[in-house]
């Protein structure tokens, strides 16, 4: 099934389906497989599927539904606006939003039953929203155990916990969770993770001594879920892993039992024969060494492909070619060589990355070409690239769906 591109609705009467021209194909059975794999690693802890940033570019609503089908109990997003979009789509699973500003709509979050991450400064605003909505807010207190971003410092933790307990006793809120975030879990040999776990346990002890009885304590991200059982507590928050990508340098998705869910593909726009010495793209930093055939690939940095990723792989007709010359806003070029038939490849499928199962190009190769991480490559694929979702029906997948898996997690 296809969904309308964000640039407008599609009618079959208006011409060819724009999803065929270029698309990011999202395999929802891969999402379900990955959630089941991570749930097995985390058990008996629950799983929060992180679907912030439009599910890392994969499509928040379809991915959220697939994750819940596969056994995720919670969903996580950064912004309240992202949480409200999921609620508007009819998703009523437990849902946490944790990154706020003074203009965040705490009232809407309380009204929609969205759990709110609280680092300290937000508490009075959350309480005011609870009074306005005449219902208690659900909050997760966040402690900074060493990452240095949001979360209360250890020095401020006692006071935050004490104030939260006072408001809880007044019926204005419920402390549902306590959480923190790990800084270097993707580098398992580093000692800072041990230090953060110890700091988190100390913060939990302080909260429990103050009378807080949280439903969920959560610290682990994807790498910690896979490598550090001592970080699992009551729930793990998994983002990258549910999209089938490895958080560990030197370890592939396949080695972790994960399946990349996104395939970025298009059609070869033009093929042309050129002489030796032909310059390619802005700056003419690449010139053909011999008479050759150049193929134009109609994706560029406006579509989210990193401009600096010259050398990134593109597969056409079973062969992979590096991008040559500078990547432009809308297009890039590959050099097919002297032997290729441009006439045969005009209009052929061009895959930038996929699941890699058949030796095709991967997100990790593009990340290396761009000098970045796989997280960024998939997340930055822009709304100009239509998303096409396959295997939406759980029964249409690989047949590995968990028997009896719920279609939706119940509200807490």
From TrEMBL:
Its cofactor is pyridoxal 5'-phosphate. The keyword Isomerase applies. The modification N6-(pyridoxal phosphate)lysine is found at residue 52. It catalyses: L-alanine = D-alanine. The active site is at 52 (proton acceptor), 282 (proton acceptor). One of its GO terms (cellular component) is cytosol. This is Alanine racemase. It comes from Pseudarthrobacter niigatensis. The lineage of its organism: Bacteria, Bacillati, Actinomycetota, Actinomycetes, Micrococcales.
């Amino acid at each position: 099934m296809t969904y309308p591109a964000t640039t407008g609705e599609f009618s079959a009467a208006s011409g060819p389906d724009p999803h065929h021209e270029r698309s990011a194909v999202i395999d929802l059975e891969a999402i379900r497989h990955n959630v089941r794999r991570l749930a097995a690693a985390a058990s008996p802890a629950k799983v929060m599927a992180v679907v912030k940033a439009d599910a890392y570019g994969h499509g928040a609503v379809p991915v959220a539904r697939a994750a819940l089908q596969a056994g995720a109990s919670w969903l996580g997003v950064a912004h309240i606006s992202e949480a409200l979009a999921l609620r508007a789509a009819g998703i009523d699973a437990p849902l946490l939003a944790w990154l706020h500003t003074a203009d965040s709509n705490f009232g809407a979050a309380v009204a929609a039953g969205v759990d709110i991450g609280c680092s300290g400064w937000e508490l009075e605003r959350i309480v005011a929203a609870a009074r306005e909505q005449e219902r208690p807010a659900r909050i997760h207190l966040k402690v900074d155990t060493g990452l240095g971003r949001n979360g209360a410092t250890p020095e401020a933790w006692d006071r935050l916990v004490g104030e939260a307990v006072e408001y809880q006793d007044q019926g204005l809120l419920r402390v549902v969770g306590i959480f923190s975030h790990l800084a270097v879990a993707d580098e398992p040999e580093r000692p800072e993770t041990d230090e953060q776990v110890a700091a988190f346990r100390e913060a939990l002890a302080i909260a429990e001594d103050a009378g807080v009885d949280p439903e969920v304590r959560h610290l682990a991200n994807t790498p910690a879920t896979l490598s550090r059982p001592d970080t699992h507590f009551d729930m793990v928050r998994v983002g990258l892993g549910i999209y089938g990508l490895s958080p560990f340098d030197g370890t592939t998705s396949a080695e972790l039992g994960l399946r990349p869910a996104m395939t970025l593909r298009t059609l070869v726009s033009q093929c042309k024969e050129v002489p030796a010495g032909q310059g390619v793209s802005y700056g003419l930093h690449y010139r053909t060494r011999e008479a050759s055939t150049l193929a134009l690939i109609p994706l560029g940095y406006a579509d989210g492909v990193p401009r600096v990723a010259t050398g990134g792989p593109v597969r056409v007709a079973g062969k992979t070619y590096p991008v040559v010359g500078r990547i432009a806003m809308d297009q890039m070029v590959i050099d097919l060589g002297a032997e290729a038939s441009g006439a045969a490849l005009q209009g052929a499928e061009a895959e930038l990355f996929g699941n890699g199962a058949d030796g095709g190009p991967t997100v990790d190769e593009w990340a290396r070409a761009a000098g970045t991480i796989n997280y960024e490559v998939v997340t930055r694929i822009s709304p100009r690239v239509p998303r096409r979702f396959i295997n939406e029906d759980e029964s249409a997948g690989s047949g590995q769906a968990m028997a009896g898996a719920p279609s939706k997690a119940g509200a807490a």
